[in-house]
Design goal:
Chain A is an all-alpha fold. Chain A is built from 9 helices and no strands. By secondary structure, chain B is mainly alpha-helical. Classes of the chains: A mainly alpha, B mainly alpha.
């Protein structure tokens, strides 16, 4: 009961998604539409589960007065702030001028873009360590990164302005991105896709059961 | 006017708080980080409620009504009670928070895993294998013998690079002889790919950094007009 029903659900749903690709007619198209809608609803509940779990962990931290419990209060306060505002605003919570949009524009966006922007410094320090031409492969890595970076900034073009059009750093960077980079990316992409296809098949056939956990 | 200034000051305070981590981990950074965690969780909580639970489930099961010219209340669509199954699966997912009957959440998880596996099995095979192979094996001189040297060389590079790259990832045969040589060429292509991707990522992060500095110097301090 605890393992059999989930295995049947996984297999049935997986097979319907596969079959509807080849037979996009009734009843498979209808089942596909239902499953897609159910997926969206369950997805929302999964995010709710994550958020409620975050609240639970933060409340436990406060109750037990663990170290840095004050930050758990900030997490709960900011979560409640945006959630209450979002529910009060109603369906049109994303409209321009709403308090929810204000929070999104002046709190969420600066924080998320700065979080990603700060990676520029860590990437720079990582590249200092990684970019050493120790052997031929490392030199290729170094040169490809160098030409792509130089080709993306105005100084790269200025340095090679004397060269004929099509032979400047920008063109070289574009050529690297369009051809050798595409080739390597494609090999990786095909390898990953074949891995995903075989894993999906194992899951649908019930050979792979690790997602069901123990007992 | 006050709220506009206040908004810019809030955004600047949070931006500088995150950057303060470059010095070292400190209370200002931790405060901003905690705000980010709470706001992000709340943002998705609200967005998925209105988009999926209300927009898909509630409106689907209880379609809105409008009053017609005869003064009768008419539904805009037929209710779709099959959506209740989705709601039940969603509720089962939340049961994970109740340890005694938490195992019931496996039914929802099984549904999610099955749907994802079925979807990926076909779509990944179609777009990331078949389509990629199709785009790799191109007519060398163009369909009407009209390709430039740039395209011809490029197509050869893509075909050779993809093929040798795949050979490198084939570990069921020892990389020796001609097979080993092809795998070695594949590594060269992969190194160029990693270098180019790295350079591209660095530039995108730099672009974000410039955006934040531009905000601080123009919107906040007004030093750049």
């Amino acid at each position: 009961m605890r393992r059999e029903i989930p295995l049947i659900i996984t297999g049935l749903v997986g097979i319907v998604f596969v079959v509807q690709y080849f037979i996009p007619h009734w009843p498979f198209n209808r089942m596909n539409a239902w499953f897609s809608d159910w997926f969206s609803i369950v997805q929302a509940c999964a995010i709710w589960l994550g958020a409620l779990n975050l609240l639970k962990i933060s409340l436990e931290k406060i109750a037990r007065r663990k170290s840095d419990w004050g930050y758990a209060v900030v997490i709960i306060a900011s979560f409640l702030l945006i959630t209450i505002i979002g529910f009060v605003e109603g369906e049109s919570f994303r409209d321009p001028g709403t308090r929810f949009t204000w929070l999104y524009d002046f709190v969420y966006t600066p924080l998320s873009s700065t979080m990603f922007a700060i990676l520029a410094f860590f990437v720079a320090s990582a590249s200092y360590r990684a970019f050493r031409a120790r052997n031929f492969e490392a030199t290729l890595l170094l040169l490809a990164a160098f030409f792509v970076m130089m080709g993306r900034v105005p100084v790269g073009d200025a340095l090679t302005a004397f060269m004929p059009e099509g032979w400047r750093l920008t063109d070289l960077a574009t050529w690297i991105m369009n051809f050798p980079q595409t080739a390597g990316q494609r090999a990786i992409m095909i390898g990953i896709a074949l891995g995903i296809v075989s894993t999906s098949l194992r899951i649908i056939l019930g050979i792979e059961r690790s997602h069901l956990g123990g007992d | 006017m006050f709220w506009e200034h206040f908004a810019v000051w809030v955004a600047a305070f949070l931006t500088l708080g995150i950057y303060s981590f470059l010095y070292k981990d400190n209370p200002w950074y931790k405060l901003c980080e905690s705000i980010f965690v709470g706001i992000s969780a709340g943002y998705w909580f609200v967005t998925l409620f209105w988009d999926n639970i209300y927009g898909k489930f509630w409106v689907g099961v209880f379609p809105p009504t409008h009053v017609n010219e005869l003064g009768e209340s008419v539904r805009t669509a037929q209710p779709d009670y099959w959506l209740l199954v989705g709601a039940v699966l969603g509720l089962l997912m939340l049961l994970r928070l109740v340890p005694k009957i938490g195992w019931l959440s496996r039914w929802s998880l099984a549904f999610i895993v099955g749907a994802t596996a079925g979807f990926y099995l076909i779509n990944y095979f179609s777009s990331n294998v078949m389509r990629q192979v199709q785009d790799t094996i191109m007519p060398l001189f163009g369909s009407g013998f009209d390709a430039s040297a740039y395209v011809i060389i490029g197509n050869i590079v893509v075909a050779v690079g993809t093929f040798t790259g795949l050979i490198y990832f084939f570990f069921s045969k020892e990389h020796r002889g001609a097979f080993g040589f092809s795998a070695k060429v594949g590594i060269f292509f992969l190194m160029v790919t990693f270098g180019a991707s790295f350079g591209y990522t660095v530039m995108s992060r730099m672009s974000l950094l410039i955006g934040r500095i531009d905000f601080l110097l123009s919107d906040w301090l007004g030093l750049i007009r």
